[in-house]
Amino acid sequence: MSGQGFTWIDLVILIVYLIFVLFFGNYFAKKEMIGKEFFKSDGTVPWYVTSVSIFATLLSPISFLSLPGNSFGGTWILWFAQLGMIIAIPIAIAFFLPVFAKLDIDTAYDYLERRFDNRGLRVVSAIIFIIYQIGRMSIIIYLPSITLAELTGLNVNILIIAMGAIAIFYSYTGGLKSVLFSDFVQGIIVLVGVTLSLIILINGIDGGVGTIAETLADGKFIAPDEQWFSPTIFEDTVFLVFVGAGMNTLTQYISSQDIVQRFTTTTNTKELTKMMLTNGALSLFIATILFLIGTGLFIFYGQAGIASGMDQDLAYGYFIAYQLPIGVTGVLLAAIFAASQSTLSTGLNSVATSVALDIVEVFDTKGKYDYKSKTKIARGVTIVVGLFAIVVSMIMVQSNIVSAYEWFNGFVGLVLGVLGGVFALGIFTKRGNAVGAYIGFLVSAIVMIIIEFVIPEEINISIWANSLVSIIVAFVAGYLGSVIYSAVSSKDSKREDYSSILDFNKN
What pLDDT is stored for residue 402 in this prediction? Predict the structure, then answer.
């Protein structure tokens, strides 16, 4: 292996990639997307493109850099977080996607309005999502930028601006179709690049695959002090990580606009199912590869005598920059950019869509804004939110996040779990109503704030239980609130037919 570090050849490859991705999505969009096409595409995007787009969106640099880092610095316990898809995907396919397809929803929160007959619920949910997504995008710009700055010597703020500006450009011009095709290419780049780096890494390890297998068997897979199961939610056991991450992923599938937006591109449930299954297979494959890379790096640097003291989230980046052949380094750095760009552009487009359709449209009771006007608003939001995320990322450079992956999953559980419980209330019950949904929101939010900020840290629950707790609390409180309100007011909730999965049991 070369060990020469970042060279001008790698820089050229990286620049060529950035130029390519800048124009690729808009080329495939073929025309300027205005109106509903900007938000939902034009119905011509193949299911496999959308599937890879979901995969690329969920595989952010948080996963790209942190999963090998977790395996390098610890064990494979967080690999079971990826297996949580085994829980999330079947539930989403069986209970949520049929409803979304039947109603032909415009956004995730359009569902809540139509299920609970309440526009305010749509607006509140959209605002929660927007806050969550802005925080997420800031992390997604921050993490690869500091890594690339460390490895290339380039100024971190310049990298942050470049990354944000490129995503803003093709999200602004081409809408969802542009984002989908760009995500597709970037997902392929990530798959090829990561797999190639694993092959090179194995060849650089004394003993190759056999040494990796022995290391895993000797406690690197699951350490002796790590538990497989505990009846409590206060410890990071394998079971809790598996179930908790499954709930995290489920909430993203069912209540996060950036993912649900992909489901709005078709009402064909067979295509939706293929999207989900393919995305699951790709996600599990890449997660396994990344964990193998982390373990391989632990062995590689251990054999070189330099493993101790290395920042776990930079371990893979150092290998890319200093151990890969010239040119391959550029490809892998492009893959890091690809992982961030796909997630970032999706975030920008989904926030813009949510503002235009979930907020502006709801308050536009007089029909002042047509779809052309909403497209202009969405593009303005894309610029403003993108610039804001860039600024927040620059601020985050001064902070210290030990494990971005674990921090982010805790963040997802706190924010999206509350939404997930309300979606579950709508899907799994007929009696759920708007009052109950608001009660579920409020009670779950209060419980999660108490857990996160009031309960002493030494007795606090595991971050992997956040989604599980928030979903259950929101659902139970929402259902009880709905039943009590209906009994007291003698009012039945209004909703569209087939807005609950229970409607599908009708003969």
Answer: 47
What token pair was written down for 33?
A: 């997307």
> Left (φ > 0), alpha (ψ -120 to 50) or beta: where does 3 sit?
left
Tell me the H-state helices in 267-370: 269-304, 315-322, 328-354, 361-363
Are 408 and 343 in contact, with CB atoms under 8 Å apart?
no
- How far is it, in rounded angstroms, from Cα 80 to Cα 230? 15
φ, ψ for residue 76, nearest 5 deg: -95, 15
> How many other CB atoms sit within 10 Å of the CB of residue 292?
21
Pair of tokens at residue 451 = 């857990």
Distance CA 422, CA 18 (A): 40
CA atoms of 429 and 486, how far apart (whole Å): 14
Q: Residue 308 belongs to what H/E stretch?
A: none
* Lowest-confidence pick of 133-142, 307-316, 347-356, 396-405: 396-405
7 pLDDT exceeds 70?
Answer: yes
State how far the Cα of 254 lies from the Cα of 248, in Å rounded to an integer: 10
Element (H, E) at 39: helix 36-40
With a threshold of 0.85, does the pTM exceed it?
yes
Q: How far apart are CA 313 and CA 291, in angstroms?
A: 13
Q: For residues 468 and 246, what is the distance between their CA atoms, to the nearest angstrom? A: 9
Six-digit token string for 485: 């309100």
What whole-number distance in Å separates Cα of residue 166 and Cα of residue 470?
Answer: 36
How many CB atoms within 10 Å of residue 494?
A: 11
Domain ranges of the chain: 8-505
The Cα–Cα gap between 74 and 67 comes to 10
Alpha-carbon span 22 to 221, nearest angstrom: 40
415 vs 56, 57, 87, 347, CA distance in Å? 22, 18, 20, 16
**CATH code of domain 8-505:** 1.20.1730.10
**C-alpha to C-alpha distance for 15 and 6, rounded to whole angstroms:** 13
Q: How far apart are CA 141 and CA 149, in angstroms?
A: 12
Q: What is the pLDDT of residues 290-339, one digit of tens each?
A: 999 999 999 999 888 776 677 787 788 888 888 888 888 888 888 877 77
User: pLDDT value at position 473?
Assistant: 95
Dist. CA 118–CA 325, nearest whole Å: 58
pLDDT above 90 covers what percent of the chain? 38
Q: How far is CA 11 from the centre of its chain?
A: 28
Distance between CA atoms of 387 and 2, rounded to whole angstroms?
38
